[in-house]
Design goal:
With 319 residues, the protein is an all-alpha fold. It has one domain: Four Helix Bundle (Hemerythrin (Met), subunit A) (Up-down Bundle), CATH 1.20.120. Helix content is 71%, strand content 0%.
């Protein structure tokens, strides 16, 4: 066993630049302390933590299947605990460098298994108790939205990376890795001020994503007893935020050919794209030694949170 690191250093090495508000406020404060306790024990790998989280998630599903109010509360608390432990696996991978390609698959698949099992147990249990078909429809809708969010985020991330790679190649840069956003400023626009404030506290502006949706269905709904209402509201908010992300991506892809052509002309590369003015930043970047505009400058219209729930997965695969 190695010596435990200071809590501040663990935060610096394991916290994401931006994360879901549920994770930042309700998970990280506990998870980082648990990581400090177990990090010296190298036998506790990210895969072990994923397995523990899955088992606790299945225990949560068993509680939901019991249908009564006390069991629903117990199931909600166990689901939150399983999510805390699941968040620890990415932190341990960052801290100890113990990620693996298999771990990327293992984490993703068993996260989805845990969510599906808990949703089936919760909605199926309520259908068995009341006989109301609405719970079966909610089950179908929750399953669809949960999978859609992850598939949509993954595909948007691929498009963003492809555009960044092409822009960097046009600028003569090595392949880019998604970089953190620009330093926070305090602009005049109220929406920009709100985004800057959220980023200052590591909270991403994408306020209702897959994480918040799962927590609403498997924690808030059973705790409040609003098993139908909470998933419906959370699902509508999830799709609203997903629509905003898709709209931003669409606008970025519309601008991309012109941005690519401008980057190529800034380096003197012949292009068949329509003749458009080279942005000042690109001209200055080509003329001033040591400064080349980054791909993020061209893709800033796309919300960086398109694949936020896969951040731990992507890091694990790279480690």
């Amino acid at each position: 066993m190695t010596q435990r690191l200071p809590l501040r250093e663990i935060r610096e090495r394991t916290y994401k630049t931006r994360d879901a508000w549920w994770t930042v406020l309700l998970v990280d404060p506990l998870a980082v302390r648990l990581v400090r306790l177990i990090a010296p024990y190298r036998r506790i790998t990210p895969n072990v933590l994923t397995g523990i989280a899955t088992l606790i998630g299945l225990a949560s599903a068993a509680c939901f299947a019991m249908q009564d109010r006390p069991w629903l509360v117990a199931g909600a608390l166990l689901f939150h605990l399983s999510f805390v432990i699941d968040c620890m696996d990415g932190k341990i991978a960052r801290l100890n460098g113990t990620g693996s390609l298999f771990g990327a698959w293992y984490d993703f698949v068993f996260d989805r298994l845990r969510m599906f099992a808990c949703t089936v147990a919760l909605m199926g249990g309520q259908y068995a108790r009341t006989g109301k078909p609405v719970y079966l429809w909610i089950l179908v809708a929750v399953t669809f939205l949960d999978l859609f969010r992850y598939l949509n985020g993954s595909q948007m991330a691929k498009v963003r990376r492809a555009m960044r790679v092409q822009l960097d190649e046009a600028r003569g840069l090595p392949q880019a890795v998604d970089a953190p956003g620009q330093p926070d400023q305090w602009p005049d626009n109220w929406r920009a001020r709100l985004r800057a404030m959220l980023r200052r506290y590591r909270i991403r502006p994408h306020l209702v994503s897959g994480i918040e949706f799962e927590m609403a269905v498997c924690i808030i709904a059973p705790l409040t007893g609003w098993i139908v209402g909470v998933p419906i509201v959370a699902g509508v908010l999830l799709m609203g935020f997903e629509f905003l992300l898709v709209a931003k991506l669409w606008r970025a892809t519309r601008k991309f050919p012109r941005q690519l052509a401008a980057a190529q002309r800034a380096r003197g590369i012949r292009t068949t794209a329509p003749d458009v003015p080279v942005p000042p930043a690109a001209r200055e970047g080509a003329a001033r030694e040591g400064h080349v505009p980054t791909a993020d400058e061209a893709l800033q219209a796309v919300d960086e949170t398109a694949a936020d729930e896969n951040d731990d997965l992507e890091f694990t695969a790279r480690s």
